[in-house]
Amino acid sequence: MDYSLPSIEMDDEFEKLVLRMNPPRVTIDNTSSRKATLIKVDSANKYGSLLEVVQVLTDLNLTISRAYISSDGEWFMDVFHVIDQHGNKLADGEVIDRIQKSLGPRACSLRSLRRSVGVQTQAAAKHTTIELTGRDRPGLLSEVFAVLSDLKCNVVGAEVWTHNSRMASVVYITDVENGLPIDDPDRLSKIKQLLRYVVKGGVDKRGANTMVTVGVTHTERRLHQMMYADRDYAKDDIDGGPMTDHRKPSVTVENCADKGYTVVNLRCQDRPKLLFDTVCTLTDMQYVVFHATVIVEGPEAYQEFYIRHLDGCPISSEAERERVVHCIEAAVRRRSSEGIRLELCSDDKVGLLSNVTRIFRENGLSVTQAEVATRGAQAVNVFYVTDASGSQVKSETIAAVRGEIGETVLHVKEDIYSKSPPQDEGGKISLGTLFRTRSEKFLYSLGLIRSYS
């Protein structure tokens, strides 16, 4: 009789044993650098460890200005230079404590990747989650919110991304009457059916997808997964959108034959959550990051990753290399803020979003990105809008929209990350040329990697 366990179960039990014997260690250093707090994380290595750490730091609204990452063998050691939203070192004891609790020994182990990418937790549910993907078009968001309003659903939160003519959104709703999650199967089926009809719009060749669940998820993590699954990176659908060529990220993918790695270099305009976005995509594509260097200098960010497949092999074909380039470009561009930033802050009420987005549509505005939140009795919403062709909206149109919605509740805000970066006067810069020596010396000095000389 064979008493052996399935290999996946054995791997899971071995991982748990390793983590119990070697709990993660977090060191927070406020003295080594004048400009940033250094966070060093040491732990037994497992697939998804890097994403977990970056996700925790990103969720705390910390900016990662530099990072040095190494995870060869059964152990990983990561060093992150972080600052708060005001550009200062970490001084808030509560934030430091949350880092320790989320990543340190008190957490027992890093949370599994499966839990961080969307497994629903019924006990924690305060709303029903709706996920939508499909072809983007002017007025789509208005139609979605109108349908939900007609179905007596109150939108308590939402995030919408558009890229390459595709749209992905995660919307959180409750029942208008009682404020509770909607769990009636028949009602959920109707919501799903009508939303799929709206999103598909009769013109989407790929089709539209809708999913309705009762539970919680990591919104931005899911949006990356949804857009990747919807193939928003596919070049055959690019329609010459509003992002100009000089804003296109520079991505190179080359094999490092003597070390058995594939090296991915990214150079682009810096913005919040950039590292989170690229690590999400590499993880979704089933790559493991063994070494990485992240450097932010002025308005630009430089990222270099040494990766392999889960099976330990580097990239082996030109088609796969091109796919990685396109996917990293998409990861950067999905969150890039195109258009004018409008902030709406008002008393929350049923149908508010349906009314506001209807006014946008009637004035020829197209929403390229949206973030909807409810804080107590207040609705705090952010919209990035362009005209229907993707161009900048005229000032008189914005004035008309503010006049209808209310000038005291709808404000135009400047977003420095929506501006175009300065033109590159020196031509294409290779991350490997500029930063490989510096990063490897730093990693070697910390004992994180073996010498590459």
From TrEMBL:
CDD domains, per the entry: ACT_ACR_1, ACT_ACR_2, ACT_ACR_3
Domain of life: Eukaryota
SUPFAM superfamilies: ACT-like (SSF55021)
Keywords from the UniProt entry: Repeat
Domain ACT: residue ranges: 38-115, 129-206, 341-420
GO-annotated molecular function: amino acid binding
Name of the protein described by the UniProt record: ACT domain-containing protein ACR
Source species of the chain: Papaver somniferum (Opium poppy)
Function: Binds amino acids.
